[in-house]
Every structure is written in C-alpha cells, then in structure tokens.
Write a structure and sequence with these properties.
This protein has 149 residues and is α+β, with helices and mostly antiparallel strands. 21% of the residues lie in helices and 34% in strands. The strands form two sheets. Strands 3-4-5-6-8-7 form a six-stranded antiparallel β-sheet, with helices on one face. The longest helix has 21 residues.
C-alpha cells in the first residue's frame, strides 16, 4: 500500500493512505503539506527520510542559504514539567558539543532549537546510500569493512 506523508512537523500521525485529501493527524490539506512545508521561517521541508519511535528525520532546504539541502532531526520528548525542562537543557548542551566537534566524518550542525515537547537538530545533508540501502553480500573481510567506515 502506498503512503502519503504529511510534512507538517507538528503532525502527530503523518502517514496517510494515498486516497486521503486531508491528513488524519493534523487535518492539513495533503495536496499542500505533502509537497512542501515551511518550518521555523527558514526551512522548506521537502520529504521524510525516516521515522522511529522517538522522532522523525526530514530532508529540507535552507531558505537563508541558497536553498542548500539540510537534514532536520525531530526528537519528541515523552515527558512534561521539570523533566521536560531538564531534557531541553540536556539537548541544548549535547547539540552545542556536537557543533564543537567539527570533524569531516560528522555532518555539520547548522541550527538547533526546541518547540513545545520537540527538539530539532539541523545538519548538513550528505548524498548517498543509507546503511539500509547498502547491499550486504556475505561476510566482509576486516579490510573491506575498514574501507567502508
């Protein structure tokens, strides 16, 4: 079955059957929200790269920098009150540390912020296959493994 993703980052249920006109999670018009969605007044979300139990990863274009491709990782906190505030503090600290690393094998951090109970990390988009797309054929010799990583 084909799925149409709602790209509204605030949508609680972004997966919709292709015959739906309106998102079952946020009520947005899927002919608009599934094509592009402007977020945080700076990013144009163009697709969903992945989704897990604690968040979603989007491909986006940075409207402030010639529409350069970016990755937005959305983490959803499952807590409230003081625990949520502590989580925001820890997220900010971790994002700052990640930004300080500046390593060629770590995507560059461009932005980080929180809204409500969600935390967002904006990083460099790197073209290529994901590990899930990479074909695994038999066992690899250690030398082959080291060449990949």
């Amino acid at each position: 079955m084909s799925i149409l993703y709602c790209l509204n980052p605030e949508c609680s249920h972004p997966q919709n059957p292709t015959h739906y006109s309106y998102c079952q999670g946020c009520g947005g018009n899927l002919s608009q929200t599934s094509q592009s969605y402007s977020f945080h007044s700076r990013y144009l979300i163009v697709g969903v790269l992945g989704e897990g139990a604690f968040g979603r990863t989007y491909q986006a274009k940075d409207l402030n920098f010639n529409r350069k491709p970016r990755v937005i990782k959305k983490f959803i906190a499952q807590m409230q009150g003081a625990a949520l505030e502590k989580s925001k503090e820890l997220f900010q600290r971790e994002a700052e540390k990640l930004d300080e690393l500046k390593h060629e094998q770590i995507p560059t951090v461009y932005d980080y912020f929180s809204e409500g109970n969600s935390f967002y990390l904006v990083q460099e988009f790197i073209e290529g296959e994901t590990l899930l797309q990479y074909p695994v054929v038999g066992l690899r010799h250690e030398t082959q493994h080291n060449q990949l990583f």
